[in-house]
Amino acid sequence: MNIIYLHGFLSSALSIKGQQLKQYCQENTGHQVYLPDLNMHPEQALDKVSNLIESLQDVALVGSSLGGFYATQLVAKHGVPAVLINPAMRPWALFRSLFTEQQLPFNVTDNWQLDDSQLDHLAKIAVPFVQDADKILLLLQQGDEVLDYREAERYYSAAPNMSMTIVDMHGNHAMDDFSKKIPLLLEFLSYSIK
């Protein structure tokens, strides 16, 4: 299986969870983990991952926060399975609440500024309901200090498009106990690959 890990906003290809997943797979499985840098315009990031999906076989996604939003759009486009970790549901609204108009464009990296047109693009591409819901495992933590876990829980459990969901009582946005969940998510992805 080829697993593409999609990091969140203000993270990178060196994300802790991505590195944990890669190390676990190297030590315990034959799975290959790809860690693309997604610090770029959302349209470019999605094109980059789409091209990677199309170049590989037996592909699965793991996405955290903004990466979870991206993964949801990519599942709808490519029909690949995904595990979502505290996914951002409406990143355009989240970023507008975090950054005032005076702070936009926001310098994310030396090469990327997040601006209003990109936020509008995110709103435009968001799928209105979960597609291929049976191929998605949703991992949420009620202690998420960045996102309201209930928003994702409602979206991914709306009938008839219900995804498998696991909600932990405490935790945080980073999901610090992610390494303990790796065997479970790999089992789900292996089962869900066509």
TrEMBL record:
<dbReference type="InterPro" id="IPR008886">
    <property type="entry name" value="UPF0227/Esterase_YqiA"/>
</dbReference>
<protein>
    <recommendedName>
        <fullName>Esterase</fullName>
    </recommendedName>
</protein>
<dbReference type="InterPro" id="IPR029058">
    <property type="entry name" value="AB_hydrolase_fold"/>
</dbReference>
<dbReference type="Pfam" id="PF05728">
    <property type="entry name" value="UPF0227"/>
</dbReference>
